[in-house]
Protein 1
Amino acid sequence: MRLLALVDSPDHVCCRYRVRAFEPALHDAGWSLACEPLARGLVPRLRQLRSASRYDAVLLQRKLLPAWQLSLLRRHARHLAFDLDDAVFLRDSYDPRGTASRRRAGRFARTVRAADVVLAGNDFLADAALRAGAPPERVRTIPTCVDPAGYPVKEASRRGGPPELVWIGSSSTLQGIEARRPTWERLGREFPGLRLRVICDRFPRFEGVEVVAVPWSEATEAEELAKGDAGVGLIPDDDWSRGKCGLKILQYQAAGLPVIANPVGSHVEMIEPGATGFLATSDDDWAAAVRALADPVARDRMGREARLRLESGYSTAAWSAAFVAAATGADAPPGPAPPPAPARAPNFTRERTRTPGGLPHGDRADRRAAAGPRGIGTGP
C-alpha cells in the first residue's frame, strides 16, 4: 500500500514532525510513504495531481489549492487526507493587512469539505474545519508530536543565580520575543546575569540580558536546548497564534525543561502552572516565574514532569496508530461522505481540549463538557 504526501518540502518542519515522524509506523502497517513538494508550474502540477491515482491514499499538507486543482486531486485520490498545523485560513499575525482573508477562508472551506479526513493539529483548527463545513465524523485532532528519544534530557543542575532561559524558533516568530522588549529589559534589571539562549538564524539584543546566539541546526538543536534551564514561549494573542501547535514547547519538554509561556492557544493545554512550568501574562508574572525557577530543585522537578507528560501525551509513539488510521483511511466510516454542512467563516477564539486518541469529533457541547480546567487536555 502506498501513501503520497504533497507537502511544502520533505525537509520542511511541518513534514518532518507531522508526516515523516510516523513513517516507521506506516511501514509497520504495510504502507510506504512518498513525500513530494507540491509541483510548481501548470504542467508539472497537473501531472502530479493526476499521479495521485497511482497511490492508495494521498495526504495534502497545509496547501490550499485553487478550486479546479482541488477538484482534479479529489477525482484521482482514492482517499484524501488534509493535514494542517497552522491557521492556514488566515494571514499571519504580522501581516499589515490583518489576519482575515476571504480568499484563504474560501479555499479552506472547499478543502475540508472535499477531504475524506481532516487531521488538525489542535482543537482550534478542528473547530475551524467544522465551522467551514467539514463533516464532524471526518475531523481528527492529532497534535504535533516529537520523539523523545531524539532529545537528551537536561542533567540535574545545582547552579545558583537566575535560570538560563532558552528560546528556539524562526526569524519570523522571533518577533514575538522582540515585541516584549520592556519585559526582557525589566528581567535583566531584576536578575543580574540573566542569560537568554536563542537558537535561530537571527538574534535580538536586550539591555541587561546576555543573549547567547546559537545558529539553528537540525543536527544540534536538541543538544543546545538541553544546555538551558527553562524554555520560553511568546506568541501574539490572536487567532493565527491559536492555530499554532506548540512545537517549541514540546521540544523544551522533551529536553526535560520547565517552560514559561504566555497563556495563548496550545500553551494553555501543554503547560500546567506549578507542575511543568508557568503561564505568565504581565511583567510581574514573568518576574515571579523566573524567580521561582531560580531554585534548581524546583526546575528539575518540573522538567522531569514535563518530559513524562510529553512521553504519554505528545510523543510519536502515543499517536502513531491514530495517524496511520486517519492518513490511510483505515478508520474511515463506511459508505459515502454525508453532504457537507454550509460553510461558515472560521473565526473561533476559544481554546479547546483535543479528543483523546485522535477520535472523530462529537458535537461542540460534548467537547466542552470534556474540557479540563483552563483547557488542559487529558492526553490520549
Protein 2
Amino acid sequence: VIEYRSADGRDERFPSLAAELVRLKVDLILTRGTSAALAAKNATGTIPVVITGVGDPVGQGVVASLARPGANVTGLSTLVTEIYAKRVGLLKELVPGAVRLAALINMSNPASPPQWKEVERATRSLGLQAQLLDVRKPEDLGPAFDGAIRQRADALVVGLETLTQANQRVIVDLAAKHRLPAIYASMEFAGGLVVYGVNYPDQYRHAASFADRIFKGAKPADLPVEQPTKFELVINTRTAKALGLTIPPSLLLRADQVIQ
C-alpha cells in the first residue's frame, strides 16, 4: 500500500503532510526535495526516510554526513547546488552575446539561497550581470518574467523546487512567450530549450533499492547517501529554432539527447 501526499507546489504544507504519514504509522517515507526531506526528518526519528532530489543534504542539515548519514535518514543527493555554475556556463555558450542573466528561484526554500550564490558567482566569473527573480507563489511567475524583460535579461536559469516543479508548463510557456532562452534542471520541463541535471526517473528507481535494503533489515544510518556520477545534457532544437537561436555544433556533440 502506498500513501501518496503532494504539497501541490506549497512548501509550507510539508510539515503537516509528514505528520499525517507518521500518524498513519507508515513503514517508510520517501521524499523529493529539501523541504520535504526536512519535514520528514523533523516529524519522526524512528520511521526510515529515503530522500531524493536534495541538492546539499549535509549543508541543509538533512544528514550528518554522506558516508554516515546517522539517525533514520538516507538516500540520494542530486548535487543541485554545485551544478548551477555549469548551467550558467552552458547558457553563455548558447547565447554568447548575453550580458544579463536572470535566475528564477524561490528564495523561501532553504535550498535556494546557496543556489543563487552559485549563480551569482558563476555570472560574475563570466563577466555577466545576475538578476534574481524571487518567486514564492504561482502568481509571482508572470510578473517575474515581465521584470526580466523590463531589465533586459538575455537568458534564464530556472531553479528546481516545489513551486517551479508544480508550474513547469506555465514556466516553459512564459519563456517561449517572452522569447527568453532558458535552462532547466529536469526533463519534466517538457519543451524547454536546454536541460542539464541528473536523470530523476533513474533516481526514483534507485531509491527503491534503498527501500528494499531497509525492509530487509538495513539501518538508514549505515547506508551512505549516494551522489550522482552522471549528468544529462538535453537540447531541444525545435525550441531553439522558435527562439531564433543557432546551437553551436560543439554543444550538440556533447548532448546526451537532441530533441528535434
Protein 3
Amino acid sequence: VVIDREGNIIETWDQWDSMWIKPHAVHVNPYDPDKHIWIVDDFAHAIYKFTNDGTEIVQTLGVPNEPGQDENHFARPTFMAFSEDAIFVTDGYVNSRVMKFDHDGNYLMQWGQEGTLPDDTRPGYFNALHGIDIDLESGRVYVGDRMNNRIQVFDQDGNFLNQWRVGDPPSDAQYLIVANSAVWIMDAGTTKLLKYDLDGNFLDSWGTWGTFPGGMWGVHGMSVDEEGNFYIAEVNSGRVQKFRPREGVDPDLLISSVHSSK
C-alpha cells in the first residue's frame, strides 16, 4: 500500500498478495538512484527487491520459504540498513547474526551467534536481533539485541565497539533509528521513545500507551520525511501516525532526516 503524506491511499500492490506470508519491514536504500523498494518477509525467510513502482521483482535475497543458516539463506530476517557500499541484514528471530552484502546483493560476511538467556552480556551474542541502523558520520552499526534488552555497536566489519542496556523488564526495544547524532529506540514495554547519544548515554523520552491520537501500541517502524514529519507504524493497533514539528522548535531536538545520503 502506497500512502501520501496526508494519509491517502494512492496505490496498492495487490498483484503480489498471494506471495506474502508475513512482511515485516519496508526499506529504501538511500544510495540507490532508482529508489528500489526492499521488503523483508520474515516468515518467508526472504527479502525482495522491487522496482519503485512495484511492477517487478528484480532481486531476491534468501531462498523463499526455505530457512537455513548458510550464506544463501535466512531464518526469519527482520530489518535492513545501508551504507555507501554495503547492505546489512539482521537475521534475526531464529538465526542470531548480522549478514553483510554489497549493493548488488552479493554476500560478503557475517557476525554473531546465539546468546544465552536471560541477559547475555557477551559482545556479539544475540537473542532476537530486532533493529539495525548506521550512523552516517562514524559508520558505526547499531544493532538491537531485543531479548537481552541492549544495544550493541560494531564497525562495518563486525568488530565490537560498545553496548548499553535499555532497561529491565518490561523493557522491550522493538525498533531503532540513528539520526541527528542520536539513537532513537522504541521501547514497547514502556511505550516510550527513548533518546540516547551515540555513546549510549540517556538523554530524553516521550510517549504513552493508547489507541487514541498520540498514544502508541506496538511501534514496529519509524521514519522521517524531508519536511521533518515523524511517522510511526503500530503493529498492535494496525495504524500509522504522523507527528508534525511544533512551530519554532529547536531543530537540534528533532529527529532529523533518516538515511539521507551525503
Protein 4
Amino acid sequence: MDGAIQNITRRILALRKLPPTKAKQLGLIAPRGLLLYGPPGCGKTLLAREIARELSDRPVTVVSGPEILNKFVGDAEKSLRAMFRPAEIESRNRGDDSGLHVIIMDELDAVFKVRGTIDDGGVRDSVVNQLLAKMDGVDSLNNILVIGLTNRPELIDPALRRPGRFEVQMFVGPPGLESRRDILDIHLRPLISNGFASPGLIRLLRSGWLSERTAGYSGADIAGLVRSMTSFALERAMQPSSLQEFSHPKEHPKEHPKEHPKE
C-alpha cells in the first residue's frame, strides 16, 4: 500500500488487535468506523475486504446503501438493526472476549445524506439517526467496525464524520507502484495458492514487472486485466491439442541399455 494508506491501516490494525483489557487500562477506544473515499474503481472495496480479512475471522457483512432503503415505514431502520444483531448477541454473551464483526457499506452517500436535504417523509433522516445510535449511542458496541465506501464524502451527514463514528477517513486514489503490486498479489492469490499459476507468472509477479507495466491503471483496471489473463489462459487450455496433451501426456521413450560387443 502507499505510505498514507499503510499508516492509517496500521493504526486501525494495532488498536483492534490490542486485547480489550489492555485497551481499557490505556484508556483507548478502537475506531468503530472507517470511511474510504475516492474516485470510482480505485480499489476501495478491495481494500475494505482485505482489512476485514486481516482483522476478523467472522463472516463479513457487505451491503450497498440503496439496499437498506425500503418503501415501507420503519423497514429501513429494521434492516439496519439486523446488521448489528449478531455483534450485539455475541457481545452480550461473551463480553470482552467477543470477536470483531465487520460491516462494509458501499455507496454510503446514497442513503446517509445530510439530514433535511431530501423530502422523503424523513426516511433517510431516520436511517441516519439509527446508524448514529448504533455506532456511538448509549448501546454502542466495541466489537464492531463499520467500513463505509463513497465517491462523494461531502454528501454524507457531518454527524457521521465526527470522532466516534467514521472518525478514520482515508482517501483511496489511483494506486501507486507498491499498491499495484499488492492488488495484483491479491487477485492472483487464488491461482498461486491452488497451484494454477505457471512459474513464469510467479516470476513476473515477484520481479515487479507487471506492477511497473500497469502504471495509470485503477484497481478495477487491474482486476479486469487479471480476469482477461485468466480467460485467455483457459481458452488456450481448452484447445483440442491442449486437452489431448493434458489427458494423454507424452510418454518419454524408455532408454534401453546399450549392448556391449561380445569379445
